[in-house]
Amino acid sequence: EPKLSGDFETLMGWADGVRRLRVRANAETPLDADTARKFGAEGIGLCRTEHMFFDPARIGAVRQMIMSETEGGRRDALAKLLPFQRDDFVELFRIMAGLPVTIRLLDPPLHEFLPHKEEELAEVAASLGADLATMKRRAADLSEANPMLGHRGCRLAMTYPEIAEMQVRAIFEAAIIVAKEAGLAPVPEIMVPLVATKRELEISHEQIDRVAKEVFAEAGTTIEYFVGTMIELPRAALVADKIAESADFFSFGTNDLTQTTFGLSRDDAGKFLPFYVERGILPKDPFVSIDLEGVGALVQIATEKGRSTKPGLKLGICGEHGGDPASIQFCESMGLDYVSCSPYRVPVARLAAAQAALAHASAPAMADRTA
Ligand code: PEP
Ligand code: MG
């Protein structure tokens, strides 16, 4: 439980009076959301829903969903997951009390959901009424050489739309429950991960609108909501003007954007990158501070292209860089609307945002000069 002193609050108050950037937190558990609020987060900028699926009470149904070869089988498993997922969002919406909550649709590393051990395979075989050999073949069919460059993010929602449908239903049902009890209606921002093309977002957006209509008709009420996307692939940044036609907001996923721009695995970054930084081959670890020349250029392109299509397009960042002061300085210069970082980095981000606003006021940076 964070204890915040009076001096700390005074300092933060000054920072808040100066900064322009909003500060949100990346959070998916009630504890994280609670901590984020205590540290002054002004919303959730990234709720990674895949983390919710590893709960021991649900992983069986998750495996059943992934391993089923029929839509009917997947829907049976999803029906078991819906109440869990609805409760997840009810809790988050209650804690965030009307502040914006960006919920990202499932972006699993699929291999982490696949059953590997014999007993896991046997369990999922029993739940699907399938034999072990079929399950082994299915697991082999689904496994990929490069899962991080594979069947993840919105690609999964293209091939198995019923998964996103369950999540979207859970979001709206939860929002309606909390709106009724609190009078402060949650405004969900539904975020589609790993979009590379406009068509992917269009398909997802249409699906979200369709599910919204269904749930609103059943409940006899409506909820305001927004649909946006992560910009975390170079292609998405380059075609951001087209993607923006279907988006209410963009959030820069600078973890994946760094990985894909450098062609450098984020999971193996510790292997030789320190050598690069020590020798000055790279000035900084690009997974810590935004690489201005490459990743930063893509952020700038996406910002300009996105806002050329929609001048008021809301822009944020939710990669690890969202809590890094140097990167926050860059976000200020780009004119982003908010940064989102881990709950414990929120105070640092508030200070950094204030410093960035002051620095920017005395020396307007890139965004203004190139405008
Ligand atoms: C990102 O890629 O920057 C991001 C925020 O998403 P994740 O870290 O979950 O891939
Ligand atoms: Mg990502």
From TrEMBL:
Q: Which residues bind substrate?
A: 48, 104, 232, 253-256
Q: Which residues form a coiled coil?
A: none
- Catalytic residues, chain numbering: 318
The entry sums up its family as follows: Belongs to the PEP-utilizing enzyme family.
Q: Which organism is it from?
A: Muricoccus nepalensis
Q: What does this protein do?
A: Catalyzes the reversible phosphorylation of pyruvate and phosphate.
Q: What is this protein called?
A: Pyruvate, phosphate dikinase
**Quick one: which residues bind Mg(2+)?**
232, 256
Enumerate the spans annotated as PEP-utilising enzyme C-terminal domain: 5-356
- Specify the domain of life of the species encoding this protein: Bacteria
Q: Which residues of the full protein are shown?
A: 524 to 894 of 894
